[in-house]
Each structure stands twice: as C-alpha cells, then as structure tokens.
C-alpha cells in the first residue's frame, strides 16, 4: 500500500496518460495478429474499471477522486517528480536484426527517411553488393565449386582487381557488368545455395538480383533497400521516438563478442529488454568464431540475460527474427543440424515452435516471470509495427502489475 499521494503519483507517472485515454483495450501476449480479436476481451479494462480498483485498493487516501485526477494529468515542468521514459535495450548476437528494428522505429514512429538520408545509403548498398559477390566467389575456391561458364573465371579476377582499386561505395559500369554476369552463372548459384558454409550477408540475393535497378541514373534507395543495408554496429546507438503518449528511448548495441563489454553502460534504468535471435542462423557459425554455432551462441546469451538477478523486475521480450529466411531454409536444411535430438517434422511451424521452446525453457523463474515471444521479420514494416504495439502494451501491463492494478 502506498502511504501518500506523492508515492502513488511517482509510481504511475509513466502510465497516467494511458489511463486517461483508455489505452487498455487489450494486452496482446500472442504472436499472431489474427488472435487479437479473441484475446482482446480477455484483457479489456475501461477507465471506470480502473477507477473502481483505485477506490478499493487506495481507500486510505483522503480524496481518491483528486488523486486519480492528479495522476491522469501530464506533470508540469516544475513538478518535483520528473516524467519517466520507457528505456528499451535491443540485445542479441551479431547479425540478429537489431539495427533493422531501429530503422523500422524511424519509419513507423518518426518521419521516416528523407531523400537526403536515403541517398546516404547508396554507398552502403553498393558496398554490400560488392562484398556479397566477392564472398561468393571466394567461397567457390574453398568449396571446390566450378563456374558454369569458364569465361567467368576471368570476370572473377577482374572483380578482385576492381574491388582493390575503386573508391569504396561506388559502382562503375565495368564493375556492374562483371557482377551481373557472375551472379547469373550456374556455379555461382550452386555456391550461393551453400551460403550457410561461409559468411554472407542476408541481403546478398536481394541486391544482386536487382542490381539493374540499383545502377539506374538517379537511383534513390527505397525504404526496403535501406532496411536491408548492413553496417556493423559499434558502440551504443540511441533512438528516441513517441508512441501512445510515451517517449521511448531505444538503445542498440553491437552484438558481436568484442562489443558486449559495452552493454553494461546502458543497462541502468532499463524498462524492457528486447532480445533478438535469428531463426535462420541454426545452421551457421559466428563471424568471430567459426567453431561456434550461431543459434547455440544466442541461447547461451539469452540464458545469461533472462536469469540474471539484475533483470528480475525487467520485462523481457524475445524476438525470433528472420522468420522469412527461416521458412525458406527449413525446407532444405534439417533442424537436427543444430539440435541433434530434434526428430520432429522439418516444417516452419514445428521447427519454429521447437526453437522457441529452447529459449523459453531457459527461464528459471517461470512462475514469477513471463518471457513474451514473437516470430518477427525485421524487414517487414507491417509485422514490426504490430509486434511493437504488443510490446508497448506488455510494458504498460507489467507496470500496472507492479502497482497491483492488473
């Protein structure tokens, strides 16, 4: 029980506007959008319902009506209690899609990317495209794969020479034509199909297939082009945006091992941890250690985060990301590559649910702490928008629980 209005006000500052504006229509803990109508009624709470609980639970206040009005209004600048901001930490192993989620927040909750900002991605996109075809060509030698057309061997040599001499992030006509010829070679396609055996950007097929568009005069990257671009995250990247009358601070930190020592600098005051794990990484190894399976690394990392005493009172949401790539891959590569004990059907639903359970079963405090999970595709704006709406409601619900109101 709170002893005074000030303590009560301090606890509920973050959620006062939601109470006033009836944002508690639903609290979706489900992963699929079509389940929303069925679950909405279960969590429905009107302002009148909350008012009744206030009166019942805080009957020792001298004037409950005045207290409710107090916490339902924005705090003035000279208030003794500063407004709180939800602080979200994006955590996960390298190349799990964290930075793409941040880009989606700019698209969904800010004004998106301006023409000038999109143009700044051209050099990154050209660099990603070049590095992708170089990785495939180099892997052909490692995997002993021959070109379908022997003439492509000369193209491969010219490719390397141009890569060493041109300005980074440019795409001269000669380079474009070489890349186009190489990408259509049958041997290159065989090597691409074995991409899990070497390091290759997820965006490789997207850019290489559409290279004609990328080199058109006046080319302006689309939102999808921007979302699929890849730059290794170093340090801590902060993004701020508003949603449902809350001002969010989202932190993206590099996921590779060398970057993790920096995580501790943004853990203080964290409201919610969003842990990203790539579903499609079950047959891949780390960039920084080719002896370690990426999925195993994610499980190990998740275990250390979700069971750490520092996060006992922190909401944790699991994003099982890259579901689109996983759906394609699971038809060709059996999940037993990563989990030898798995003998179920190698389908998207069965294999995906098995992976989800491997993560959720690591939670050692199941009775007191729920881990919320979602299958996600970070490059799908509609999917990310729906899932983040659910995450916001989870944050609200968990804090209402802390107040004894849910």
Automatic annotation (TrEMBL):
Q: What is this protein called?
A: Guanine nucleotide-binding protein G(T) subunit alpha-1 isoform X2
| Keyword terms, alphabetized | GTP-binding, Lipoprotein, Magnesium, Metal-binding, Myristate, Nucleotide-binding, Sensory transduction, Transducer, Vision
Q: Is Nucleus one of the keywords?
A: no
Q: What biological processes does GO assign it?
A: adenylate cyclase-modulating G protein-coupled receptor signaling pathway; detection of light stimulus involved in visual perception; phototransduction, visible light
- CDD domains xrefs: G-alpha
SMART domains for this protein: G_alpha (SM00275)
Binding residues annotated for Mg(2+), in chain numbering: 99, 233
MF term (GO), any? GTPase activity
GO terms for cellular component: cytoplasm; heterotrimeric G-protein complex
A Pfam family matched in the record: G-alpha
UniProt keyword annotation of Transmembrane helix present: no
Task: Indicate which residues the UniProt annotation says bind GTP.
Answer: 95-100, 202-203, 227-233, 252-256, 321-324, 378
